[in-house]
Amino acid sequence: MFINYEHENSVYQVGIEKRNNKFFITYDNTEYQAEAEEIKPGYLKIKIGDKLIKAVVTEGEKEKYVFIDGEIFRVKPIPLTGRRMSTKREEGDLRSPISGRVTKVSIEEGNKVKKDDILVVIEAMKMEYLIRAPYNGVVKKIYVKEEDQIEIGEQTVEIAKED
Amino acid sequence: MFKKVLIVNRGEIAVRIIKACQELGIKTVAIYSDVDKNTPHVLLADETIPLGDPTPIESYLNIPKIIEIAEEAGAEAIHPGYGFLAENPDFAETCSKRGITFIGPKAEVIGLMGDKIAAKKTMEKAGVPVIPGYHGNKQDVDSLVKEGEEIGFPLLVKAAAGGGGKGMRIVDNIDSLAEAIESAKRESKSSFGDDTVFLEKYLDKPRHIEFQILADHHGNTIHLFERECSIQRRHQKIIEETPSPVMNPKLREKMGEAAIRAAEAVGYTNAGTIEFMVDGKLNFYFMEMNTRLQVEHPITEMTTGVDLVKWQLKIASGQKLTLKQKDLIQRGHAIECRIYAEDPSNGFLPSVGTLKKVEEPSGPNIRVDSGISPNLKITPYYDPLLSKLVVLAENREEAIQKMIWALSHYIVLGVTTNISFLKKVLAHEEFKRGNITTHFIDTYFKEYLQMKHGLPLDAIIALAVYDAMHLRKQEVVRYKEADPHSPWRYVGRWRVGGEIDVH
């Protein structure tokens, strides 16, 4: 299976499989083989080769916290919903940077757009996030409409590139 | 000594006071609002009385309700802690009228020191240096320029109604003074509807250094040395230490004497703190007096071995101060870090939530004054201070090392805290050298606070392993089902949405 974690507006995608009591973790073109045990709830001891990772993981209402090397990181796991969640990595990614509400869709399918045109406005935590055109092109598909609730990482618009 | 004391506070300071009372054999009464029902101070106290509505004005600031509770519970004295009613002269006055001992100075003294301009005038009369300045009524530009010339440069022009830097100008010489006064007046008029300005000498490399005072009702006043409190964010201290890296025996003696003079000038009793500003040339100026126990009192306790809260209780019950100035010594170096539920990379805004895991560091000379426990809800009603981590070591360098170790072993999961940020400050080269001023965070951490720091590989692995152990089947989608075009080699980090505009 693979899991997406959101941290500071970046999405980290990691693959993990458990086979014969071993964990196979895939991240950034590398596979790590780990042995792991949970000593008490949330307290993990993970061995990868000679390396020992000690971590504490706990779950909040929507987020997870991990304590590692004296640092604490707060992440939000993102459920994968096949359809709108494209996992393809490509130039001009137009996925939503944040979970929020779509307050404006300023384009229609078939419209020509210029680089940096505002396509979609998403409001979250009283701030507005603007999705801008990454290059000149034509609006191929719009996945959202005004007033939609949108999750982080959800595709908003597809633009066909034109020179 | 009192038989029963009511503690009018919550969180770590209520816990601290209850412990001191219990050690002295005093019964304690705790009060709590609806959201504080299961907090450590409530669990520790001998008697507990609910306040209901968590809004501060209806709970920990509700004077009539609190007085009624004190009388019903038969408490002879009230300890106000810090914040809330600790520096409210009306509350102190009401207590004494109703025959309840307020553990602190007299109401008039609280009132006098609460009026910042009156306090300065009193101190000036007592021969305590104050920041040279003009706070008078002559508001025409010519008069102000004359006053400014007398004070000297650099000079600070400051709107009387000011805040947030509005209507504030730093002036380097006489030539630009008139213009600066005029523009500060214009800005102040449009921002606050008032164009009164003050003039003050501008201090270069300002430090905030304060002296702890204890004074009894028998004419004895002592000081317990200094605390360096220059590391601040949003004008609030986050790291305090003693001794101050800039202090020398001669300056300490001079400032200590000035602090005692300041306390005696107003007939001060109980524990108090004289705050000074110290400039780059080690000139010091009276800033204000805090007529209560300070948040950072533990570092003084660590280096002197004196229990300040017990002395507050003893002094309030009429006992004589048996500590003599000449017998007091500072031993080693102590640092305190304030652990806040706040997000340093988001303007230090308070963060709320439920604490899932709490594990405090422990070891030789590590002290945690804590007001939290697992499963506690951090609400937006009160100050987001969770606890205070205090360490003592033989010298400053080792104290910094110990503090970094202790912070690295402090597990608080469930809300965002400033723990990681505190570590970065302590590890900063300029901090290690002791080159600190009240501008430290703004000078060295402006960019850091806006940076994204990323999720390290080990954290990603730990999360994935945890989820592989715990996630139920339906919560995940196997990659084949999710997207057949997503080969494993794409797995990694991607930044969403390209550029992000926030406005």
Give structural notes.
Chain A has 163 residues and is mainly β. Chain A has two domains: 2-78, Glycoprotein, Type 4 Pilin (2-Layer Sandwich), CATH 3.30.700.30; 100-161, RNA polymerase II/Efflux pump adaptor protein, barrel-sandwich hybrid domain (OB fold (Dihydrolipoamide Acetyltransferase, E2P), Beta Barrel), CATH 2.40.50.100. Helix content of chain A is 0%, strand content 58%. Chain A contains no helices and 15 strands. Chain A has strands at residues 2-7, 10-19, 22-27, 30-40, 43-48, 51-59, 64-68, 71-78, 100-105, 112-113, 118-124, 127-132, 137-142, 149-150, 157-161. Chain A has an eight-stranded antiparallel beta barrel with strand order 1-2-3-4-5-6-7-8. Chain A has a four-stranded antiparallel beta sheet with strand order 12-11-9-14, with no helix packed on it. In chain A, strands 10-13-15 form a three-stranded antiparallel beta sheet, with no helix packed on it. Chain A is elongated. Chain B has an eight-stranded antiparallel beta sheet with strand order 14-13-10-11-12-15-22-20, sandwiched between helices. In chain B, helix 4 runs antiparallel to helix 5 (107-114), helix 7 crosses helix 8 and helix 12 runs antiparallel to helix 13 (419-427). Chain B is globular. Residues 474-490 and 496-503 of chain B have low confidence and may be disordered. The interface between A and B is large, with 75 and 62 residues. Strand 12 (127-132) of chain A pairs antiparallel with strand 25 of chain B, so a sheet runs across the interface.
